[in-house]
Amino acid sequence: LSRELAERALGGSRLALSRLLTLVENGTAEGRAALDWLYPHTGRAHRIGVTGAPGTGKSSLVNQMAHYFRLPRPDRQPLRVGVIAVDPSSPFSGGAILGDRVRMRELAGDPGVFIRSMASRGSLGGLAATTSGLVQVFDAAGFDLVMIETVGAGQAEVDIARLAHTTLVVEAPGLGDDIQAIKAGILEIADILVINKADRPGVENTERALQNMLQLAHPGPRTFLHHGRLEQVEAPPAPTSAGIWIPPVLRTVATESAGIEELGEAILRHRRHLEAAGEWDARERARLQAELEIMVRETLFGRWEAQLANGRLAAALDDLAGRRISPWQAVTQLTEGGVL
Ligand SMILES: Nc1nc2c(ncn2[C@@H]2O[C@H](COP(=O)(O)OP(=O)(O)OP(=O)(O)O)[C@@H](O)[C@H]2O)c(=O)[nH]1
Ligand SMILES: [Mg+2]
User: Fold this and answer.
1) Maximum distance among all alpha carbons in the chain?
2) 255 and 60 Cβ atoms separated by less than 8 Å
3) What sign for the dihedral angle of Cα 277, 278, 280, 283?
4) Which atom of ligand 1 is nearest to the CA of 198?
5) Closest-lying ligand 1 atom to the alpha carbon of residue 90
6) What value, to the nearest 5°, has the Cα angle with vertex 167 and ends 74 and 261?
7) In the chain, where does DSSP find H-type helix?
8) 244-285 pLDDT, tens per residue?
9) Most confident of 185-199, 219-233, 264-278, 300-314
């Protein structure tokens, strides 16, 4: 079943793609088998993370960008765009936020855009791993760009941003969003900063605040710091002829399609930068290592949980709470007997 679905998804069937995404999202055995089969076909898609505080206009921007990348340009074919909205606080489809042209295209069955919402709750094997599986499906099915929208600035968003080659952090004037984002360290992961709702008052202040933060954050090889674990794997990349990427700060008004071309082109320019600087492969490797570690951890934990005799955990907790054993003694007790 999964092999057949995967073949049909590769062949361009939207129904097969949709079913496959569901199998993967639900963490089923068929989903896993399909991913095994699809994996050799992955590795080409440009993964773009879009994160920021609630209501800053991420979904509106994603829709506008999807539309922009579909336009034929003198220098390239229309690009195929997959979208994954992780735990959207406002539903993606059916809302007024969907650009009319994009929606019409969807209705007309444009195989070049596919939008998928995903609930974060109850995802098996961790949100980042599940999202990664969905991205692999889009990638194998030939989507050139996969945009991943996440809300907020917590660890989950940072983990998901690590999946991306290019991370957009979306801010809006006022509301102190910039301060929140800075607090959470989300700026560290930004490759492109977007000030959306630039039609609102206070845009200059937000821009100044972001520029100042960037200057503080920037000296030296901060591109290297971006996607986390890289530094533990290899030495910082020496500045190459491709130079160091300094995250641009761009203004947009998603509701009026303003600034979308500049944003779209900045995303594509970032890809070229990563490739020229050798960072595309370095990020890929760092991401694979991070994902592999997470998956091994989940697998071992699952095995440990499965073999645990009834009541053993409760008994150990009683002993811990009663100060009869220490936490490390509890770990030793609970893992002895060749769990792995
Ligand atoms: N004035 C103005 N309003 C905008 C702009 N972009 C989006 N909006 C409006 O802001 C509201 C939120 O937009 P969304 O695109 O849903 O924002 P979001 O960041 O995806 O929201 P969540 O996914 O719920 O966090 C909607 O009512 C949009 O119409 C903009 O550039 N200017
Ligand atoms: Mg949204």
Assistant:
1) 73
2) yes
3) negative
4) 31
5) 24
6) 30
7) 2-10, 14-25, 29-38, 58-70, 100-107, 127-140, 155-161, 177-183, 203-217, 222-226, 230-233, 260-276, 279-307, 312-321, 327-335
8) 888 999 999 999 999 999 999 999 999 999 999 899 998 899
9) 264-278
Residue 336 has, within 13 A of its CA and on its CB side, a CA count of: 6
Which residue did the predictor score with more confidence, 224 or 267? 267
pTM over 0.85: no
Contact in structure between 173 and 200 (CB atoms under 8 Å): yes
Query: How far is the centre of ligand 1, averaged over its atoms, from the C-alpha of 260 (Å)?
Result: 14
47 and 166 Cβ atoms separated by less than 8 Å: yes
- For ligand 2, the distance from its centroid to the CA atom of residue 157, given in whole angstroms, is 14
From 50, 51, 56, 60, mutation site for ligand 1 pocket: most ligand atoms within 8 A of C-beta: 60
- One-letter amino acid of 224: F
- Tracing tokens 């496959």 back to the chain, one arrives at 20
Angle at 16 between CA 10 and CA 19, to 5 degrees: 130
pLDDT digits (tens, 9 = 90+) for 86-98: 865 444 443 334 4
Q: Six-digit token pair at 297?
A: 């951890």
Among all ligands shown, which has an atom nearest to the Cα of 83?
2
